[in-house]
Design brief:
The protein is of the alpha+beta class. It is 21% helix and 11% strand. The mean pLDDT is 95. The site of one FE3-S4 cluster has 14 residues, from α1.
Amino acid sequence: MTFVIAGDCLDIMDKSCMTACPVDCIYEGSRKLYINPEECIDCGACEPVCPVEAISQEDDVPEGKEAHIEDNKAFFSEVLPGRDAPLGWIGGAREIGPIGVDTPMVAGLPKSEA
Ligand code: F3S
Ligand code: F3S
């Protein structure tokens, strides 16, 4: 089980979640943030601090936004545009800084479909 950031984060990127996370496992793309499912300890500290309620537990993602469950994983397990290897296990968002790209799914999302 892990927590997931859905499309409500798109183009908002408040980042309060990053500050709240005790294990620094929330990574910054270009238009939204992503939780590393291998690093999240499921503490839930990020969920209440998001002003647009973009974060929920994997099995509690709102209807119609389920694609973000796999997409959060894909951000780390698939090769992102412009990179030559998956991000994988990183061990800290602050150290690596903004990744600067999104998954193809998120990159193609109009705001209205978030
Ligand atoms: Fe996004 Fe909410 Fe975090 S808007 S950056 S998920 S606090
Ligand atoms: Fe961090 Fe939220 Fe997981 S605070 S440990 S990403 S539940």
